[in-house]
Amino acid sequence: MLNDLFTETWKELECGAREENHPFNICSLATFETPTQIKQRFVNLRKVTKKKSLLFYTDIRSSKIEHLRANPAASVVFYNHLLHLQLFLRGKIKLHTDDELWEDHRLKVDGRSINDYNTKYPPGKKIKNPLEVKRTNDLNFAVLELVPDGIEYLKLRAEPNRLRALFEKKDEEWEKTFLIP
Ligand SMILES: Cc1cc2nc3c(=O)[nH]c(=O)nc-3n(C[C@H](O)[C@H](O)[C@H](O)COP(=O)(O)O)c2cc1C
């Protein structure tokens, strides 16, 4: 049964990355803004790789990049209200800014989504007029790869079906156990 929960975890994450309307298409990503302060923000899940890492896109000038350069530790949390399923994943984030993986994903950025990465000034800069955002031909695009080493699965349906499980990566193997919900 633990293996079924693990399989469900990855199946649901893959659906989230593929389907825009899936509840797992969006998650909250937490990073260390300072050594003692956490920041969370929503991001779109773009892909689940064969090696079970999660890919996100961002502007390379956004403040999360600075946070991750200082400390790559990060976590994400997803909630599917239809399944009553919460998934929490923690691990480290690798930044991709000019390698093959980055190149593959940069090619997928087209149409309106180009505007997410081409502002003249960096995201978060103070401006007077939100209707006058200057753009350039540069694409300040980065891929964040979360390599998880711990996952918590929690399904909070009515008793007796409350399920909580922990999956931990040890020496490239996933150890699985149930937890008290
Ligand atoms: C529904 C939703 C989806 C978002 N998706 C992304 C995303 O995929 N990548 C991203 O960098 N920011 C995304 N954002 C904006 C972030 O929440 C955040 O405001 C922005 O990335 C700046 O964060 P930072 O200054 O901590 O780096 C999204 C916001 C919302 C509300």
From TrEMBL:
<keyword id="KW-0560">Oxidoreductase</keyword>
<dbReference type="InterPro" id="IPR000659">
    <property type="entry name" value="Pyridox_Oxase"/>
</dbReference>
<feature type="domain" description="Pyridoxamine 5'-phosphate oxidase N-terminal">
    <location>
        <begin position="24"/>
        <end position="105"/>
    </location>
</feature>
<dbReference type="GO" id="GO:0008615">
    <property type="term" value="P:pyridoxine biosynthetic process"/>
</dbReference>
<dbReference type="InterPro" id="IPR012349">
    <property type="entry name" value="Split_barrel_FMN-bd"/>
</dbReference>
<keyword id="KW-0285">Flavoprotein</keyword>
<keyword id="KW-0288">FMN</keyword>
<dbReference type="GO" id="GO:0010181">
    <property type="term" value="F:FMN binding"/>
</dbReference>
<dbReference type="Pfam" id="PF01243">
    <property type="entry name" value="PNPOx_N"/>
</dbReference>
<protein>
    <submittedName>
        <fullName>Pyridoxamine 5'-phosphate oxidase</fullName>
    </submittedName>
</protein>
<dbReference type="GO" id="GO:0004733">
    <property type="term" value="F:pyridoxamine phosphate oxidase activity"/>
</dbReference>
<dbReference type="InterPro" id="IPR011576">
    <property type="entry name" value="Pyridox_Oxase_N"/>
</dbReference>
